[in-house]
Queue: 3 jobs
Job 1
Amino acid sequence: MISLTVNGKKRMVDVKPDTPLLYVLRNDLELNGPKFGCGLGQCWACTVIMDGMPILSCITPVSAAEGHNILTLEGLGSIEKPHPIQKAFIEEQAAQCGFCINGMIMKSKALLDKTPDPTDHEIIAALDPVLCRCGTHKNIVSAVRRAAKEMKK
Amino acid sequence: MKDFLLTRRQFGITAAGIFVTFTLAPELVLSADQPLPGALSGTPMLDAWVLVGSDGKITIFTGKVELGQGLLTALCQIAAEELDVPMSQIKVVSGDTRLTPDEGYTTGSQSIEYSGTALRFACAEARALLLEKASAALGVPANRLKTAEGKILSVDGRKLTYAEIAKTDLLHHRATAKIAPKPASQHAIVGKPAGRIDIPAKLTGLPSYVQDMRMPDMVFGRAVRPPGPRDRLEGVDIATVRSMPGILSVVRDGSFLGVVASREEQAIAAREALQQSAKWRTAGDLPDAANIYTWLKKQASVDEIISEKKSPNAKQVVKRLEAAYTKSYVAHAAIGPSCAIAVMKDRKLRVWTHSQGVYPLRRNLATVMKMNPEDVIVSHVEGSGCYGHNGADDAAFDAVLLAREVPGRPVKVQWMRDDEFAWSPFGSAMVMQVSAGLAADNSIADWQYELWSNAHSGARPGRPGGINLLAAWHLDKPFAPSSPRPVPVPPGAEDRNALPIYDFPNQKIVRHLVKETPLRTSALRALGAYANVFAIESFMDELAVAAGVDPIAFRLSYVKDPRARAVIETAAAKASWKPGFKSDGTKGRGFGFAKYKNIACYFACVADVEIDRKAGGVRVTRVVGAADAGQIINPKGLEMQLEGGMIQSVSWTLKEAVTFDRARVTSRDWADYPILTFAEVPEIEVHLIDRPEERPLGSGEASLGPTAAAVVNAVSSALGRRIRHLPISKEIIKQAS
Ligand code: FES
Ligand code: FES
């Protein structure tokens, strides 16, 4: 049994310690935020935040998450009460297929926690490794800008 | 899984229909022999498109599916507009063989034109029927009633809700299309920005994709593909893998190899073990990548002169220019690899898929599994962004083959990243050869264009003459794919947009559809239009230079269509285009234009670039686009589609080429096949020209060709040398420098 803290809740899972965290979050804890994009640490679709740091859950063994705080997209906010970043993404309509957006929002969350007032350059640098195929980049950057503004209020 | 048994009836209504006649203005009456508009012609019953529930909730049905560009939101807007109900009261059901009309595939940006038109007329007629019914109930003439917010209001202050009226089988009758939809001037919802109905759920982690579906007893499947397309499985150690933890089944059928496990990571581990132990006979039959364009031109092909014009008044040619352009194989490269779920029980099959065509997929599945189509239910659930015929159908068939091994248990198949890169069909490599004759006055007197390409269409499931499912070709008793067939222009496929939009006195356009398909190709966003527009618009620039005329002015002298001219002029003005641009050797500027498929959205683009001659780098700094997509349904959505296409086009144009050796595809992950990232995305502007009285025109693919052309023309202007190959690799820049 491995004990995890996900979105503030203690969860016990009966899986092999080398199981990628992504599959535990998606299949055992039935979370949808982190996505399988490559399983290779190349696209950031699977991003979750561990103790404030964005990590690639597809190449992180579940054992490495034991004793740490894991935050997923679901832990930010809900459809009824979205987090300001989620709200900003909705307001900017910053999604086409939306498959990459978990990575975009979670990376932005980690950025804004450390750098509440980022320059465009800092936003772009933080998001650069997160791949988007639909070409939603422009609206995504606007959404992060808007979120930063809202969160300062 | 109770959803398994849900039928269409449960969505709706009972009792008998009523028949109402209306007095109509003469111009609105369809004559008897006129076909019903849009997709109504194929599915004429009103309640196939719209139901008013006894709770007042409206359900609309479309055979088209969401591909990640907001189609369902646009359809919801159309229905809300015609029915006078808020969008939030409408549920959209799409792409389901039990529930929705058969609208074939969702492709070619035609969904608004077909499904949207059908819904528009069906909902207008539904509203009229509701009014008629209310008129009888209230004893008030229909013209003294109005509808708003899902209610019918009488001038005397009485009110009825739709729910109160729609108790009978009100909409169970044939559409007449005799009720005119609202004119654009009355639109309150259509043409206004609307928030996408799917976005809030996606952004807060609610289940939105087939990847997010979970069912009781669900297990996990993986396919183990051969290294190369025609390799054969000679041996594999199945017994050892069967004894691995969690393994429920290892399936081998000819060269199809797959595994079912209780847990996802167990299925992945088994896949790896099978890959290690499998012995394949290598076909090694891929052409030499270095000579792929010569190879293409040498193959047997289906040839056709798609246009030939000879004018007796054509001027004498005094100078001839020639050029050949080439473009690499390109991958779909969706962020989420293909995924599907299937369950089989008592010779009944249920499939959840992000296929572009649930009915055609059902036909292929039924044939291969030797089942009645009625016993196969295929439902669309969104996947990652869909840019054409990707691996969705193949993953669905993988899931079916594996589900057969564990009856009653849903099997989720998730393709791995390398499955997606190596086995999703590609956008074909192409060769375009152009020659033009200039007259003494520097006008184009003659235009000759030839293109060679593998199929961009015709390889989808459900097409006649074969089975277009990957695993079906690998089975012990294999099925053959259907052989590629040309699609007449317009819209065309390989030759999409091969007809120049410009008016030349003499022209000849020849298409060579190369049948031999060493690498599987099929429809990828814009099909042949991306490369044809690149070639035509590059060559127009070459001719403009030869003629000593500004490239935009040069083009305008061959364009009469005022809508085309307006789009070209808008892009030029918004980008502050000035004739006589001189590069400083690093900065470049270029222009590109097309009318997609020659019949859809007009799009023009100006690109600014900077090149780094030493490093071979190209940076697209700014792209400015202008579009006329007829009547705009959702401006924000349209802008996003066009911008998305522009970014994807810059990515294809600067970076993307599928790589392969003689045996296999070698670009198998994001390191082998990089796409544009944030730091490389240009500044983007899109200007929309609304034509509220015109038909809405498909636009999801319109911006790719013109953007590519603008970028190539800009890079060529910076280099002072012509670029004639895509992608514009570092080597090309360095060599040309
Ligand atoms: S899925 Fe983890 S980086 Fe791609
Ligand atoms: S929105 Fe589709 S991949 Fe980014």
Note: Chain A touches chain B through 58 residues (CB under 8 Å).
Job 2
Amino acid sequence: MKRKEIVRVENLKKYFKIKKGLFGRFKKGEQQYIHAVDDISFSIGEKEVLGFIGESGCGKSTMSRTLLRLLEPTSGSIIFNGEDLLALDSKNLRKHRRYMQMIFQDPFGSLNPRRTVSDTLRQTVRIHKLAATIAEEDILIKEAMEEVELLPVEEYWDKYPALLSGGQQQRVSIGRVIILRPKFVIADEPVSMLDVSVRIGVLKLLEKIKEKFSISFIYITHDLSTARYVCDRIAIMYLGKIVEIGPTEEILSNPVHPYTQALIAAVPEIDPTVKIKNVPIKGYVPVVPGESSNCRFYPRCPYADEQCSDGTPALRKIGTDHYVSCFKR
Amino acid sequence: MAILEIKDLKVHYLTKEGPALAVDSINFSVKENKTVGLIGESGCGKTTTARAIMKFVKEPGKIMGGEIIFKGRDILTMSDKELRTLRGAELTIVRQEAQNALNPVMTIGDQIAEVIREHEHIDKRTAWERAENQLDLVGISHHRAKSFPHELSGGMRQRGMIAIATACNPDFIIMDEPITGLDVIVQRQLLTLINDLREKLNLTALFIAHDLSVISETCDDVVVMYAGKIMEKADVVSLYKHPLHPYTQALINSYPSIRGEKKNLVSIPGSPPRLVSPPKGCRFHPRCSFAIDRCREEAPEIREVDGHSVACHIVK
Ligand SMILES: Nc1ncnc2c1ncn2[C@@H]1O[C@H](COP(=O)(O)OP(=O)(O)OP(=O)(O)O)[C@@H](O)[C@H]1O
Ligand SMILES: Nc1ncnc2c1ncn2[C@@H]1O[C@H](COP(=O)(O)OP(=O)(O)OP(=O)(O)O)[C@@H](O)[C@H]1O
Ligand SMILES: [Mg+2]
Ligand SMILES: [Mg+2]
């Protein structure tokens, strides 16, 4: 099935200047950069969920914030609904912003503790001037609460976040987003702080609103097992680059990049009679992903040889919609 | 033989709204060379149980009753002096969020050596050598002994905490969520380390987690806790293959697995009760799809069924 393209990202880069003294001294005049997002390209179709999976520091949050232009990219292009976001002036950007929203990891931290559920939602309604009268506001708020299943509405209307469970708090955050009828939502680890037992309820809610309001999603996580239940495709990220991208079940059953293999093998297994084959990868994610003339995974890769120190491998097609960047595969 | 026996333990937190029954009459034991997993949702009382075993419960918490028999003696009646020689040597804990609990102005090597010297009368040099050995044991090279905590990654700091906790050859170690909050690959490396140490050091341990898979990979037996009460106890294979309690079943059915067929997941409706006003009867009944009138009225006692201990009226 060919979907209508909603988001297209081309050669996106976001480099941060390294402050002098932080990582030792540089030679005179030599400015170094952290390549947090380094030449990333992908597209997302209507109602599609694309997962971005990778370890801490690989650039997931930086990419999200750059996509929503909360951070200015170093270079590249971001096309949203046919429009080049980077070419928009601030007035036009504001118009688009309403349709591009974000859900964060820490539900409690992203809610104002002194606002009740209805006040939180009302504030969004007011900022975006969605209603003319208080009665109209109330209707929108009630609809949003029903949508995110904070039921019965009267019971949650005047509740403060501290009295809600993590799952309920996250539902308020989601309500605040869908009240705006966005077309594109980035969910950055939306369930990682919730108990396993309630995660799936929140994920099913995301699935429901995706279908109902035709939303395209980016789902960011380091947990492949929840990604399996939400994502149509997943992109594996390592140090600012996509190293493998493809349909979810294809990636899980036929992972090609050694890093993808390691990520999959790392997920703990619930069946105590199943023993997992470990993929031995060495060391830790380096702290500063700067310039490099070899494959970025080279220092940790169990299969690396001389060839791998020879430039950066490009993403190559190896199956239907399945791409990998590795010299050895 | 059981090294640790917890009998009818009760711990309350005195809050403005009244006492919260965080640990409410629980019983379990840990046999020598076994690892017992304690699992349950956030706030069910896992850390409180761990603290009680160390007799570390602080205001507004209070141990209201019970016994904690460690190698034949009740920890709850020990003097402070007895506790000091016990803690850190025979009985140790890797606390939740331990990676942030290292002393920032002391090298990792010194921190390990200090613990050893607190409990054993040996000179500085020998203690330092032992510290270096410990670092090698947990997979941080002894070359890093002079590193300060901020120079180590989160995973390495957690290894450091495990090095401290195992430095004096403890008879019993508690690990409270030792891999939570770390990256998947670092988690895997730590699970491998913990299983290696279990074998190498013949550890007897209580392993706390909120994720059943982590327990499945590290434990022999499992204790399932919900809202301050124990719901089910069994060996790890039997618990996973034949869970009896509806709560255990629900935990398993909500778990998104990455391997094998993609099964349909069911989340547990609602959320755990507030412990100042737990529901009458079985504490799980408001979220249980099998609940009958009896469950709403009468708290179930723990019974033995098919080799499990289970607290549920509807289990036959
Ligand atoms: N404002 C900034 N200034 C300098 N460096 C930054 C800044 N923000 C992020 N970085 C660096 O960019 C890299 C990517 O960070 P980012 O937060 O995007 O990673 P992440 O994948 O979201 O990690 P996590 O899983 O921990 O949230 C890291 O090396 C980080 O230290
Ligand atoms: N200092 C405190 N004051 C009041 N209540 C407390 C205090 N510490 C814990 N509690 C309550 O006791 C209960 C048990 O807390 P505990 O930390 O033992 O849970 P846990 O199972 O370890 O949870 P988690 O998985 O989040 O670590 C919780 O409901 C909590 O609200
Ligand atoms: Mg992030
Ligand atoms: Mg805890």
Note: Residues 6 and 225 of chain A are 26 Å apart (CA to CA).
Job 3
Amino acid sequence: MAVYVLKKGDLEKFLLFLGKQGELIAPVKKDEVRFEPLKDPTDLYLDEQTYIPAKQYFFPQEQVLFTFQDDMIIPVVAPIKKRIFFGLRRCDLAAIQHQDIAFGEHNDPHYKKLRKSTILIGYQCTKKLHHWCFCGSMDLPDFYDLMFFEQEHHYQIDVGSAQGETLLKKSKLCRKTVVRISKEQKIVPDTNLLQRKDLGKHYSSKAWDSLVKKCISCAACTTLCPTCYCHEIKDDVPVSLKEVQRKRTWSSCQLKEFSGVAGNYTFRESRSSRFKHRIFHQLQYFREKHGVDLCVGCGRCIKHCPPRIDFIKVINKL
Amino acid sequence: MKQLLSKADPYRPFKIEILERRQEVKDTFTLKLDVPLKHDPGQFVQLSIPGIGECPISISSYSSSFLELTIHEIGMVTNTLSKLKKGDTIFVRGPYGKGYPMKETKGKNLVLIGGGCGVAPLKGVVSYLDKHRHDYGTIDLFFGYRSPEHILFKDEMPTWKELYKLNVSVDKAPTGGCYTGNVGFITQLLEKSQLSPQRNAAMLCGPPVMMKFCIDILQKKGFHEDQIYISAERLMYCAFGECCHCMIKGKFTCLDGPVFRYDQIKEDLNEEH
Ligand SMILES: Cc1cc2nc3c(=O)[nH]c(=O)nc-3n(C[C@H](O)[C@H](O)[C@H](O)COP(=O)(O)OP(=O)(O)OC[C@H]3O[C@@H](n4cnc5c(N)ncnc54)[C@H](O)[C@@H]3O)c2cc1C
Ligand code: SF4
Ligand code: SF4
């Protein structure tokens, strides 16, 4: 598709323009770096990977599916405004695509509703954002409406969709160029850390034991992962007692109660079996079913793991 | 016959009236619901009470005019369900999952082995067999319970005795009680039986330990792993393969099960821990 050019000095103007087209959400640094509505373009913060991924905007930590009022089911109808995401990294974008697959398989209307009117604008990393980025091992796709490639004095913007190009034209800040984005530009140096392999045969390998033993089941990994989508359903009765809300909330396979059944019986009782389940879901089971790994190699689950369990080392040794 | 599955929202349940509530034993009851649900024996539904929650329950009937669910009181939802009575309404969605292979086993002899509440889905199979008795050979039923007080479906037992080879046993019986039946684990009856693996298929449902011992005995009698079908229980919320709680390695209990052919799940079960 076409490639456009934006002068670096025009980025603020471009962000202001985006803010007028819908709610603009981009990385900002507060207590942590996270995707937040960008009120002031100078708040844009691109020096680090966001601690919290963009997942919550499509798959919120808590979402009301519908309510019961006097035994009638009332769907939740809240108009969703158009949202424009800026500054998504290649891993963040692929994570959204993988969640599209997970929820799309069931035609999930609650996910679709939040995902529908969004524009995804990516920002290609020119160097790795932290030591454990392994996106280079994951064959991440081009999945964006627009993707920014930083050059010395300007940005090259790769168009990924018609709605992306319409936006660029409307901004009147960009000009079309004949230059094409090269394959090399799309790859972040030194991020091919993981040797991908068929893990199916290696579940019972002793290689897991020593590292995995250190897991403390804190669930930081699943909470910060941009692709983890396990959830539970709960009913909530507000104090008014007027209506019952049936809610979907995140849950973590790292916690024991994730698979407990009646009679005090827990499947995957040991921490190591739960750790392995996460890795296998991310790097084996999802691929067996959908042809693509769930994991996008963002490395958050290693960087933010308190005992810093580096499963890349284990897999490479298998 | 219909299905209670919403195209617009897979989580959306349907309001259904309770036709009858029967106490089976002290802590187990059956709800008869006003819905002719199109389903296979061994499939389950999601049952819910607004404000309390939702839980998966196997279908224990096979009828074109109503649906029966046999429920063990164990926690929030099941205890609240037990307080409902005729005329009350509940919410149901389903059916879900893969049931027992009734078509594939046509023409064969069948062994049904159930423990405790695990007899409930097998009662659905038996109701199916009542209607298709001539399609199958000999049918052996092995149902085990904790004590005489825990024996389910006593009203059905005279009919079952007539149509099938019914074996019932209780783990323990109080001395001096009026119970005159078998005492001991159901595995003992199974072991003593003259079952032959020829043209036979076994369908199991019960606590994991009980199923494990029964599978060992069946294998000693010459049954192959692909002649044995087990029903697995896992915590689940969505029941259609999205919440991921019920995964057994890469398989989903709610989609690929709850009934699995033993050779296709054995390794996964062994490795899971
Ligand atoms: C496919 C399938 C078929 C089932 N069929 C029957 C049946 O025919 N009759 C019957 O009495 N029970 C059946 N169960 C078990 C039943 O779903 C649970 O006992 C029930 O969910 C407990 O809910 P509760 O709110 O009463 O208990 P809770 O207060 O939620 O918890 C009590 C215990 O039940 C476990 N539990 C909670 N929710 C579930 C769940 N969704 N699935 C499994 N365990 C859970 C908890 O971990 C806890 O140990 C079936 C379960 C499955 C997966
Ligand atoms: S973040 Fe690390 S310690 Fe915490 S649950 Fe995940 S793997 Fe275990
Ligand atoms: S599993 Fe870890 S590396 Fe993979 S996407 Fe999730 S947080 Fe990132």
Note: The interface with chain A takes residues 7-13, 15, 48, 50-54, 72, 74-75, 89, 207-208, 233-235, 237-238, 240-250, 271-273 of chain B (CB under 8 Å).
